[in-house]
Amino acid sequence: MTIRSRRAKKSSHYMNQHVHDPYVLKARAGGWRSRAVFKLQEIDEKDHLLKPGMTVVDLGATPGSWCEYIIRRIQPGGRLIGLDLLPMDPIPGVTFIQGDFREEEVLHKLESALEGREVDLVLSDMAPNLTGIAATDQAQMMYLAELALEFARQRLKPGGDMLIKVFQGSGFPELRAAMMAAFETLATRKPDASRDRSAEQYLLGRRARPQ
Description:
Structural class: alpha/beta
Shape: globular
CATH superfamily of the largest domain: Vaccinia Virus protein VP39
Order of helices and strands: HHHEHEEHEHEHEE
Largest sheet: 7 strands, mixed
Number of domains: 2
Number of helices: 7
Distance between the termini: 58 Å
CATH architecture of the largest domain: 3-Layer(aba) Sandwich
Helix content: 40-55%
Strand content: 15-25%
């Protein structure tokens, strides 16, 4: 079998799984933008992250299913800012910034959009464009996670929370230790909607310590 035919077979297998994925079907039936909404919903129902009136930042927001869920949960009086490298179709009540979170100019736009508000919750579902080279992908993932944690340290109010997607591997123990120092408690979450083959998991930091 040639490399091209192996790739075609793998792609066909993935598409078949995607089309019949129960969470994909459930998302379509519910009018959600993607199946990822059920990851956040499960964690929120377990840990009670979202409440009316909160100020929330959603990093890695596109295509927007998390934003769709969040904006419903934080009203009345809530404020939600989403950010992603890719464009996102507008969602009523959501302030969206398109740009690379690694760039200072984009970070300044995000801070400006907060208008001096302290943040109650930082969510990060960011992930790099995967190269297929495990060491490279892991390094890029951990760099994004470290930047998200640094932002949370600076902008979360004392007692605020953070939920961040990570991959197990190089740099993970160091990130975990940094989050344990930044929050009073730290838990690991692997939602049912996360695909079995995915190495992703979420770290949930509760009650940010004063800086």
